[in-house]
Every structure is written in structure tokens, then in C-alpha cells.
UniProtKB/TrEMBL annotation:
GO terms for biological process: D-alanine transmembrane transport; L-alanine transport; L-isoleucine import across plasma membrane. It is a multi-pass membrane protein. The keyword Zinc-finger does not apply. One of its GO terms (molecular function) is L-valine transmembrane transporter activity. This is ABC transporter permease. Keywords: Amino-acid transport, Cell inner membrane, Cell membrane, Membrane, Transmembrane, Transmembrane helix, Transport. The chain crosses the membrane at residues 6-31, 65-86, 98-117, 137-161, 192-215, 227-251, 258-279. It is found in: Cell membrane.
């Protein structure tokens, strides 16, 4: 296998892993604070992608406006379902909320299908399609755009989580909700901000994915299990682990394509996950759990 081909695959994996780290971070944030895996994450991504397409079609061809509108709409939808569904189930079991999130995912997906049908769409990217070639190493300008946008969003996310009062309140609620409430932290307001941020990151991730893939109703849902796997690989509830797990998963998929073809690349990525979990059952950045 040529080294150039492997390098190109690694570059593609880094791009894929970086853009998926946004919704994976959203999953991690929701799990860390609300204590359940949100299965609607993939369909929130799809909603963001369709919103971007609709913005370019009906309002403006500006990619920046499409990105912002996708993040805003998805954040609003995320808050809506939190207020309508998840807040009412706050005292129910994690399984009940997981099942509810599957229902939310189905509602979002069927609503998209009802209005947009099963047709496939593409974002308009006329100025970002010509590749740069460095002795066989191909770099697409659109990949650079995806990387810069995703890294910028991740930087903002980590600043919010670690350098703002909101982030400190989020971590306090995640560590000990009762103690946080006794300290005067308004958990409901924290939860509202949580769902705004998670929805925005899902929408942004959906737009970035739409730059590289066709937009269809199953766009995000097909990535739900790989995203959950990346969360487990990085360490459940750990934001840094979410990003690292996403990168490992993305690179594993793309490199595996060179050896087993695109049809089985996801299988090889899951094999990498299983091998790593044999040595680190709690994930790369997770805390060891004591048996009781």
C-alpha cells in the first residue's frame, strides 16, 4: 500500500472525525449533565443540513448564512423538545428518556421526509471544489473550511465549558445536582443552555457533513451508532475524550477503506473500538468504575 494513499486516507479521517466531534460533543454534554444518551442527535444533524439547503435555495446562497441558520434552527428545535419531552421526563429512568429520544428522532425524520421527500440535495460550494495537490497528497479547500469551522466551534465550546460561569455551573450540575441546587445554581436554566448548545453543535455538524455528502433524510441517523461508539471510546461524559474518540474512529474508518473497501470500513472501525476497550474498558479518558 502506497504511503501517499495512507496519508490521504488519514487526512480524510481527520476531516471526518473533526466534523463529527461536534455532534459527539453534544452527546457527551447531554449525557454528562442529563444522564442519558440522546438518540435524536443524528436527526438534529439532518435537520441542520436541510435547513442549510433551504437557506441557500430560498434566502441566500451564502454558506455562512446557511451555517448560522442551521445552528439557530436546530438549537430552537432542541430546546422545544427539551421543554416538551425531556424536562417532563427528568425524574424518569435513563432508559425511558433514551426511548423518548428515539421517538423525537422519528418525529424529526418523518417531518423532514414529509416536507422534503426522499430527494437528495447538495449544498452549493462553487468556490471550494478545486483540490490542491502536493506530490500526490490531495487537500480539498472545502476540507480546510470544514476543519477551520469545526476547530473554531470546538474552541468556543471548550472556552464555554472551562472558562465561563455557565461552564462552571454546568460542571457543578453534572458532578452533583443536589449540591449545585443547594449552592443556588438554577438547574433548569443550566439545562436550557445545555440544549441550546447541543442543538447548535448538532446543526453545525450537519451542515459540515452536508458539504461532503448528499443530504437525505437518513443522513445523520446512519451515523448515530458510530457517534455513540466514539463517545464510549473516548470515555463517556468526557468532552476531550469525545473529540479524541471521534478522531480515532474517523481515521480508522478511512484507513480501513484502503484494505477492505468502503462497504466494510465501519466494521474495521468498530474492531479498533473493541480492541482499545479491551485495554481501557472505561474509555481512553474515562474514569475507572469500581465494582459493587
Amino acid at each position: 500500500m502506497e504511503l501517499i494513499a495512507i496519508i490521504n486516507a488519514v487526512i480524510n479521517g481527520i476531516v471526518l472525525g473533526t466534523l463529527l466531534s461536534l455532534p459527539i460533543l453534544a452527546i457527551t454534554m447531554v449525557f454528562g449533565i442529563s444522564r442519558f444518551p440522546n438518540a435524536a442527535t443524528g436527526d438534529y444533524m439532518t435537520l441542520g443540513a436541510y435547513t442549510a439547503v433551504a437557506t441557500q435555495t430560498w434566502i441566500s446562497g451564502s454558506l455562512v448564512l446557511a451555517v448560522l441558520s442551521a445552528g439557530l434552527v436546530t438549537a430552537l428545535v432542541s430546546v422545544f423538545f427539551y421543554l416538551w419531552v425531556f424536562r417532563a421526563l427528568a425524574q424518569r429512568s435513563n432508559v425511558a428518556r433514551l426511548i423518548a429520544s428515539l421517538g423525537v428522532a422519528f418525529v424529526v425524520r418523518t417531518t423532514i421526509t414529509f416536507f422534503a421527500g426522499q430527494d437528495q440535495y447538495n449544498l452549493e460550494m462553487p468556490r471550494l471544489m478545486r483540490a490542491w495537490n502536493f506530490h500526490g497528497i490531495r487537500i480539498l479547500p472545502m476540507d480546510v473550511y470544514i476543519l477551520l469551522t469545526a476547530i473554531g466551534a470546538l474552541a468556543i465550546a471548550f472556552v464555554i465549558l472551562h472558562a465561563t460561569p455557565l461552564g462552571r455551573r454546568m460542571r457543578a450540575v453534572a458532578d452533583n445536582p443536589d449540591l449545585a441546587a443547594a449552592s443556588g445554581i438554577r438547574a433548569r436554566r443550566v439545562m436550557l443552555y445545555l440544549w441550546v448548545l447541543s442543538g447548535f453543535f448538532c446543526g453545525l455538524g450537519g451542515v459540515l457533513l452536508a458539504i461532503k455528502a448528499v443530504v437525505m433524510p437518513e443522513l445523520g441517523f446512519e451515523l448515530l451508532m458510530p457517534m455513540f461508539a466514539a463517545v464510549v471510546l473516548g470515555g463517556v461524559g468526557n468532552p476531550i475524550g469525545a473529540v479524541v474518540g471521534s478522531l480515532i474512529f474517523g481515521i480508522s474508518q478511512e484507513v480501513a477503506t484502503l484494505y477492505v473497501g468502503p462497504s466494510y470500513k465501519i466494521v474495521m472501525a468498530f474492531l479498533v473500538l473493541l480492541v482499545l476497550l479491551l485495554f481501557r474498558p472505561q474509555g481512553l479518558f474515562g474514569r475507572p468504575m469500581l465494582a459493587r
